[in-house]
Predict the 3D structure of the following.
Amino acid sequence: MGNNDAEQKVNILGLMTGSSADGLDLCLVSFAGRDRSPVYEVLHSQEVPYPKYLQDSFINPLELSDAEIAQLDGELGAWFAAEIAKLKLDFDFIASHGQTIKHEPPNFTLQIGNPAAMADTFNCPVIYDFRTADVEQGGQGAPLIPIVDQYLLQQDNSDVLALNIGGIANLTIVPGLHNSAPVLAWDTGPGNTLMDKAVRLFSQDRLSYDESGNLAAQGKLNLKLLDELLEHEFYQRNPPRSAGQEQFGKTYFQQILKQFYPASDEEFKDLIYTLTVLTAKTITGNINSLSTDYSPTSMYVGGGGAFNKTLMNLLRAELPSIDISEMNREGVNQSNKEAFGFAYLGYLFLSELTANLPGVTGAGKAVMLGKLCKPHRS
Ligand SMILES: Nc1ncnc2c1ncn2[C@@H]1O[C@H](COP(=O)(O)OP(=O)(O)O)[C@@H](O)[C@H]1O
Ligand SMILES: [Mg+2]
């Protein structure tokens, strides 16, 4: 290793489009090395919001027909290529997560955004479909970011928590090198998805989320509703577990509205606050009942939910012994961590290294993740 570092540098453009359907996150990373711990440098990060028709298409993906999915697969891939072209970036590979349409382990998982347009536009290989290989090994195909958390955050002598609050919330426990216990990770339940749906309904689609948690901050807790929502079977499941629109999508939100339909602006704020408390409680409950093999004292939060002050205050109130900060480490922050993560997963693929953590996903064994789409030769 290291005899010719210049030769071993590779620039990978990581692309993430999460379940919130707010847009494309990009992170261009230069990696130098050949093993699991390359030296990295973040060269460029950006968020490109979805145009309204893509946002509307992906907000309730389970309602799409097969024909619509096939059409959107091509349109989204072409949109990715067109948006990336505007940025004039220099990269060797693209690593693209794609937009999740269905996530039904152990049967299948589907992310779309056809890589061919990007491969041809930039004449570069695209690594894509990162989840299927894990599902084929009997795993959940999720979460995949824990190996990235380990790479970024593992300490010598202390255990660390990483929380991502996107549409769904995921928690990773990274043991320090002193601790022989394994990395743990699972989806805790809804992140922003239910709050976002309540805000859209309240604002008749003028708003897509609760800016800074300001609406929630004006609401009161509906304890009866909260107690009912905490009965959801997902929270009783033991890991490995992952969630998506199947558990916390439109159908579930409609059920919530049957339990409590807000009759006034005040009551809407109560609903938004109660859903914010639900997200906080399902996260903190998991942390407060962690096995005594782990003793984390710090937590790094990423994802758009890190901007929700009401939610962050609830987390801090319930976790007094944990130092909670926004993810921010050598160019990786709360906004680009997942796109960075897919660049790193692309690096692992190119280095022919396994990338799933079977203890986390439930897969039978560790395997390489991703497929390669090569450009057509002209
Ligand atoms: N300024 C903000 N205040 C409150 N919530 C925010 C803010 N910015 C983003 N969010 C929340 O974060 C979500 C997007 O988070 P993101 O990490 O992109 O999730 P995903 O990975 O599911 O796309 C938005 O839908 C919204 O709920
Ligand atoms: Mg997003």
Observations:
- Residues 265-288 form the longest helix (24 residues).
- The chain is about 35% helix and 25% strand.
- The first strand starts at residue 9 and ends at 17.
- The mean pLDDT is 96.
